[in-house]
Design brief:
Number of helices: 4
Order of helices and strands: HHHH
Largest sheet: none
């Protein structure tokens, strides 16, 4: 497939990572999203508990919000216990499947 062919299915692809300020909040759950997830799932856990275990990280221009690993958060809420879930990650298909499973429960 020619990359520069105007009839190509794949043209002008740009890859963004968590250092890109415009999209940095899309690489994890923000504090506000985490609060929404906890409320939507009627979880007995608090953001403080999750933060003390998973801490979160900062990226891009928005240094006020922490970003939380989606795999760890969703697996923790499904399993009902804190654990080092990030050690079990392998590829993005796992995160995709967890997010879909979580949304299907709602």
């Amino acid at each position: 497939m020619a990359k520069r062919d105007s009839a190509s299915d794949l043209n002008n692809v740009r890859v963004f990572n968590l250092l890109n300020e415009r999209y940095s909040n899309f690489f994890g759950f923000t504090d506000g999203e985490l609060d929404w997830i906890l409320k939507a799932t009627e979880s007995q856990m608090s953001r403080g508990e999750l933060k003390s275990w998973y801490d979160g990280y900062q990226a891009g221009a928005n240094k006020t919000d922490r970003l939380y690993n989606p795999w760890s958060v969703l697996t923790c809420l499904q399993e009902g216990k804190m654990h080092a879930y990030w050690e079990e990650t392998g590829n993005h298909d796992l995160i995709h499947d967890k997010v879909l499973a979580f949304l299907m429960q709602q």
